[in-house]
Specification:
alpha+beta; Phosphorylase Kinase, domain 1; Aminoglycoside 3'-phosphotransferase, Chain: A, domain 2; four-stranded mixed beta sheet; 13 helices; 17 strands
């Protein structure tokens, strides 16, 4: 990754030549592009802009699906920033400014927040591990009572199962099937890996240990009633975010607060998906985002996975990952949230593991290093095998 100070809110970003991008303006005075960023998870163009001395952030897209996503994001921001019942949630997001649409493009503008995302602040030692938890505690003191617990409802078992299938299983398998059809080959340091062959391989060797293919475990999980019920979503609440990773949290150092970005704009959601996305980032995904992973393939279906990370920083991430569930359990307002979720820890761990597999197409689409696609698969293999082992112990 280039060494620069992140000034915009976009996660896993790098600066490109901004002069090549013509952006529309609805005002006579043309805004000036200060910095252009690329986001790993969408087709949108995101940039820091300036007009008459005022800085703001613009998200723009011309792709139909991307435009719909931006409209949904903006609708959410408008809703939480204008509805009195959600003013506390609205205060966690950048202030919404103008928007513009014609037959070719759509964009919306928002307040500029000066500071890195929370993952980078932790990675660069701008905040300590205790400060990380203090910031999350302050964030959840608003998100839980003013967000997730609002308009909440317990789900009947039949609806829980349908939700699990549609949001979790179908999402993973549909993405992987599309990935297999692309028949991609990933160039590693000393070998070339067929992504389709890897996804179809029943056994995967990682750092000289043997593991079951995570897709086979997910297929088995769907058939195991005992285990499957442990990950049923049993509660739905207001979607206070929808993709709550540390890369979607800005560390506003001037005001000592977290500002959330890149909401999913869904008005009813599974809160434990958001909790799981944080653990997902702490257990290795942040290293994938910033491309600090090394994957070697000394022999077929045998891999060596490592992180290019300062050992002290890696220790901090590992300790946060180990203590994260205990941290959640101690949060104020957490008890009513888990009233209908007896297996909430399993649910958080399942989100963590399955997200690595679900993320693979995006790493291939946006990553500067295709190695990160393999890293996603290997990390998903490790976490899902570990979780499966725990479930087998519970059954005994």
């Amino acid at each position: 990754m280039p060494n620069f100070k992140i000034l915009s809110y976009v996660s896993s970003s790098f600066i490109q030549n901004a002069s090549l991008l013509p952006l529309s303006s609805s005002t006579p005075s043309q805004p000036r592009i200060i910095q252009l960023f690329t986001d790993g998870g969408s087709s949108a163009t995101v940039c820091l802009m300036e007009i008459n001395g005022t800085h703001f952030v613009r998200k723009q897209d011309s792709d139909k699906e991307g435009v719909n996503k931006l409209k949904t994001e903006r609708a959410f921001l408008k809703y939480v920033q204008t509805d009195p019942d959600f003013k506390d949630i609205g205060s966690l997001y950048p202030k919404l400014l103008s928007h513009y649409e014609n037959e070719k493009t759509y964009y919306y503008d928002m307040e500029y927040i000066h500071g890195p995302n929370l993952g980078r602040a932790l990675f660069e030692n701008q905040i300590s591990a205790p400060q990380f938890y203090e910031l999350l505690d302050a964030l959840f003191s608003v998100l839980i009572p003013k967000g997730y617990l609002q308009k909440g409802r317990a789900l009947p078992e039949s609806e829980s199962e349908r939700y699990l299938e549609s949001i979790y299983f179908n999402r993973v398998f549909s993405r992987i099937e599309a990935l297999k059809k692309r028949n991609c080959f990933i160039e590693l340091e000393t070998s070339t890996v067929s992504l389709t062959e890897l996804l179809n391989s029943p056994i995967v060797m990682i750092n000289e240990e043997q593991y079951t293919n995570p897709l086979d475990l997910l297929s088995s999980l769907k058939k195991h009633a005992f285990i499957k019920k442990r990950i049923f979503p049993r509660y739905m609440g207001f979607c206070a975010h929808g993709d709550l990773t540390p890369t979607n949290m800005l560390w506003d150092s001037r005001n000592k607060r977290i500002v959330l970005v890149d909401n999913r704009g869904i008005y009813e959601w599974d809160p434990f998906y958001d909790f799981g996305k944080i653990k997902f980032a702490l257990s290795g995904f942040y290293y994938v985002v910033i491309e600090k992973v090394t994957v070697k393939n000394p022999e077929k279906r045998a891999f060596k996975l490592s992180f290019q990370v300062n050992p002290t920083i890696q220790d901090i991430f590992e300790e946060l990952n180990k203590t994260y569930l205990s941290f959640l359990e101690k949060l104020s307002h957490f008890a009513p949230l888990i009233e209908h979720e007896p297996y909430w820890k399993d649910r958080v761990l399942f989100v963590e593991a399955s997200q690595y597999i679900a993320d693979m197409p995006y790493r291939l689409q946006c990553g500067k290093s295709p190695v990160c696609v393999i890293a996603d698969f290997l990390l998903g293999t490790l976490t899902l095998n570990q979780l499966w082992k725990q479930w087998q112990i519970h059954r005994q």
